[in-house]
Sequence to fold (714 residues):
Amino acid sequence: MNDPLHTFFHPRGVAVLGASANPTKLSYGVLHNLVTHGYLGPVYPVNPKGGEMMGLRVYPSVADVPDPVDLAVIVLPAAQVADALAACGRRGIRHAVLIASGFGELGAEGKEEETRLRQVARQYGIRFIGPNCVGVLDTYAPIDTTFSRTMPGQGSIGLVSHSGAVCGGTMDWAHVVGVGFSRIISLGNQADIDIADALDSLAADPHTRVVAAYIEGLPDGRRFVEAARRLTAQKPLVVLKAGRTPSGTRAVSSHTGALAGADRAFLAACRRAGAIPVETLEEMVDAAIALAYRHPPAGPRMVILTNAGGPAALGADHVDRHGMRLADLSPETQARLRAVCPPGTMTGNPVDMLGGPQADHYAAALKVLLEAPEVDGVMAVFVPQAITPVYDVAVAVGRAAETAPKPVVCCIAGGGGIRAAARALHAHSVPHYLTPERAAFGLGALWKSARIRETLPPEPEPLPDMDRERVRALLEGKTGVLDPQTGAEVAAACGLRVPPSGLAASAEEAIARAEAMGYPVVLKRVAPGLTHKSDAGGVIVGLRSADEVRDALDRAVRPGERAFIQRMAPPGGVEVIVGGHRDPQFGPLVMVGLGGVYVEVLRDVAFRLAPLAREEARGMLEETAVGRLLAGVRGQPPRDAEAVVDALCRVGWLMAEFPQVAEVDLNPLIVGERGAWAVDVRVVVRPHPSPAAFGGTPSPLPNSVQERGGGREG
Ligand code: ADP
Ligand code: MG
Fold:
């Protein structure tokens, strides 16, 4: 794949607009880093004052800058940026980094300024990063256009972030503990180059083994998902997203000016993308260092090698929590351990060397464990004590583990004395953690990355038997909630199974319909604005005769209203809900959960992006109680789970292909032993459909499926 940001990392010359000789200014920092952090091409400070800076000639205007130059770093106040960008364009520069803040993050006016930047960029064919960013760096190129104080060492983590401060903070931490980076890309407001470009760039970069992304707003969630999928086919991606809760969303909107999406949509997007979602900055770096330094385990069987019981027990709990388990060590392995460990060592798992193991003991025991066929990975835990130097243990663990194909993580707790130990471990490609929980998290990230690669969802299969023309005709000219009959016809046109049904304006009509479809039937009141028909006594099931239909109509339907007559689904089915809705960032989603009145309370629902492959739909069932219930509990027969899978795929395609459909609810889908019936189909059509079938189509958030949520994510 081509690197869309190639020139940003390998420019033939860089102009710094607004360069300053005043060390308290950002523009000084940028110039300083370009000059001193290894970049070998020419650097041209631009400042109307002219003169000389850091031994370089200063050009009064960018027009005076000689060749070669193909990147501009613009460090001017917001009000001057657009003009400066145009000047770069006139000079033939096609790439720019815009550092200034004071744009979209401030609100409407700033957004307008950003639009102006885009116009200028389009006019001259410029691609730019920012505004409101700290720039980019590549430790191998090398080049550093940021104004941060330290250049990180070389490593294999590619970091991309909407927040410059997150980049800065992460670089500081990394510097202290000796963790290196391949590239850092601070995107800022991503008015032009966005997260998807950055992911493509990091996918193409041979020095990047793992990508950590800190995300705020995603104007086009589907573009992100597609780029992430391309990336994760090659290397793992860890994603931290702010704005997943109502408060977080508020903080983000006042920060980069973007609106963030709901949590479940994000998690569904990660699933589709094959990304590992994390909750905190700490988790982001914990996962990133594990993935940067180690190969994923071949299986889930972990060993904890320790000199203290408590931390090992905590580590064991968290190994389980992340889907792995403690290995059962064979008698041979235990015998080999006894031969190399201090007397009294407990050779079960955790392997506890008790009070006084030396560094050599760690090295020898680790060697045995890494050779044992029943072991897939190791967590080495060392609690510093008086007799054994921490640093020695770190070096011993690092040396023993460095070239092993199995993952080894190391937990050494403690304060200041730890830094050297951490640096030693990282120098030997062993990730260091301060607590056993975090070490287990690192192992878990490796385990997850292996699982993700195996289970990356395939492309959704098209459904040739969907009658698109019929759906289009049914939706034509409609807005708001469709009546139940039209809803049922839409469902039928999508290939969903619906019982025979029809609308009736009188008792005679209702009876005629019932006789035509055959008893038993159900009668439902039809009234605009009535969402829960049965709440108001508006659903009467199990009608077996003309008299019963007439009586039901009298009771349930008011004068002037119509009745919906529907054949009863076969008895003994399990009621589930299958739904579809639209997220403002990630576009159409489908949902499944247990049907009925408790769905809001139990919140046992799963979400995926639509359209979806059958495998993904099956995963949704496995993730919720629906799957277990359909499998048959307490003597009940198993129900047709594949019919639910089919319904999810069909609702997925309906959402994906018809952007005018804002929401769909099949509640319930009655699932029998063979087949499933959509007996209550609610379709909401939006008044002004967006032309795009996928993603990015803003819709007001509160809707039925959304309200129900909160539980299991997609
Ligand atoms: P609402 O959700 O608006 O109250 P529904 O059409 O979902 O109305 O009907 C309520 C309940 O009645 C369903 O959950 C289901 O238990 C039962 N029901 C409705 N239609 C049928 C049908 N055709 N066959 C069997 N049961 C039905
Ligand atoms: Mg219903």
Summary: Residues 499, 522, 524, 532-534, 539, 541, 566, 568-569, 575, 667-668, 670, 679-680 surround adenosine-5'-diphosphate (ligand 1) (CB under 6 Å). The domain at 6-287 is CATH 3.40.50.261 (Rossmann fold). The two ends are 30 Å apart (CA to CA).
